[in-house]
Every structure is written in C-alpha cells, then in structure tokens.
Amino acid sequence: MRATGLDGFSKGWVAVTIDGDRRTISFHRDVADALARPFDRAGIDIPIGMTDDGERDCDRLARARLRPHTSRVFTGARRWLWQEFDDPDQANEEALRRGQSRVSRQLWHLGSKIMEVDAFVRANAARDVREVHPELVFLRLNGGAPLPRKKSEEGDALRHKLLKRSGFREIDRWLGEARIGTGAKRDDVLDACAVAVAAHEPNGCVPEGSQPLDAYDLPMRIWF
Fold it and tell me: What does the angle CA 35 – CA 36 – CA 37 come to, to the nearest 5 degrees?
C-alpha cells in the first residue's frame, strides 16, 4: 500500500508518502505534480465535492467531533464563488442575495487550491483521492482528547510527538533542513503527515453509511 498525504501552502503542496515502512516528503508547485508518482490512495486537506449553497453534512459532523474547536473546519465552499467572482465582497453580496451564508476570508483565499483539486479529481475519477482533515486525524492519534492550537508551542509539540510515535522517525529533519527554503511552514508539514496517516490506514469517516455525492459525482465525505 503506497499512500500519499497532501497539504497546501502558499507556494504549492507538501506531499508525504507512506510505502511500507518507508516515509518520504517532497514539495510541489501543483497537485498534478504532487500526485504524478504512482499511489494506491491519496488524501488531501481540501474540500472535495461541493454543494451549490456550501452546506455539507461532512463539515457539520467534523465540527461536532472537534468541539469545542469547531472553527478548525472551514465551511461554505461553493464552485460558483470562484468561477464567477474575483472579489470576496462581491461574492458575499451574491451569497446573501441567494439566501446563503457568507464565505470567510480564510476559505476565500483557499479558492485557487480548492478549484485546482476540484479539476484534478474530476479529471481523475478512477483514482482513489479522498478528503482528509488533519485535525480529525490528530484527535484520533490523541485518543479522542482535544488538542491545543496547532500554532501554539504546546500544540506543535504534541502533534510532533504523536507523529513520531506513529513512525515518522525523520520528522525533526523534515521540520528543519528539508522544509527550509520551500515556503512551507511547520504546521503544513505536520498536517501533511497526518493526512498521509489517514490515507494509509483510514480509521473512519464522516458521514458513515452511504456516500453523499455532489452534482459531479464527487464524494462529500471526510476521512480520518
């Protein structure tokens, strides 16, 4: 089983691959390059499958699992936001006109990556590419106990420890010399590792049961 986990950052994507006992990291400009090498299953920390109004059961259920840290799940991704608008204020005016929720600035700035992944998965429907939320993975690795903020010193240290315990023996080097100069931050590397864990050995998903599909038959399900 060769599994790859991806997390986006300002200049591209962090890719962490688990292949048996071997774990590797690489940095890529686009998602197609990051997934150019053969893989059995890939996970991506980005919405896959969207509704016209931005409401998804998987987001609601993921937020419930992460309570009290519900804001760690961004909600409201809609294709038309980025297809029709270049300005978030105009997009939000249209969302309100349609009786929908506004899009947050954080999610708005993820738009180029959301649409990049959307195009890739629609063009590669036969490949096993799944949406993964790293915070759900860390919650799982931490025995279900909520974690401190990932950008806090305590939160960073705990996530680092959980990954080291999960077999990422080179995590110190990845967070140091391997990352320097790429533009990726510490939490981008940690998140990519967590996504790879879920891609390699998924523990569950939300929602369970039958898989909800969007208008393009893309799954709206988050794995961890």
Answer: 90
Q: Which residue ranges make up each domain of the chain?
A: 2-76+127-223
Residue type, 17: T
**What pLDDT, on a 0 to 100 scale, did the predictor assign at position 61?**
98
Among 77, 185, 79, 58, CA closest to 133: 58
* String of DSSP letters for 73-128: S-----HHHHHH-S-HHHHHHHHHHTT-PPPPHHHHTTHHHHHHHHHHHHHTTTS-
The CA distance from 12 to 17, in Å, is: 16
Cα separation of 115 and 7, whole Å?
15
Return the percent helix, strand and coil in the chain, to nearest 5. Answer: 40, 15, 40
Phi/psi-derived region of residue 13, left when phi > 0, alpha when psi is between -120 and 50, beta in every other case: beta
CB atoms < 10 A from the CB of 142, how many? 14
The structure tokens 């937020």 sit at 63
Residues whose CB is less than 8 angstroms from the CB of residue 180 and which lie 6 or more positions away in sequence, other chains included: none
Q: Per residue in 114-146, pLDDT tens?
A: 999 999 999 999 999 999 999 999 999 999 999
With a threshold of 0.70, does the pTM exceed it?
yes
* CB-side neighbour CA atoms (13 Å) of 84: 12
Contact 101, 132 (CB under 8 A): no
Query: How far is residue 158's CA from residue 148's CA, in Å, rounded to a whole number?
Result: 8
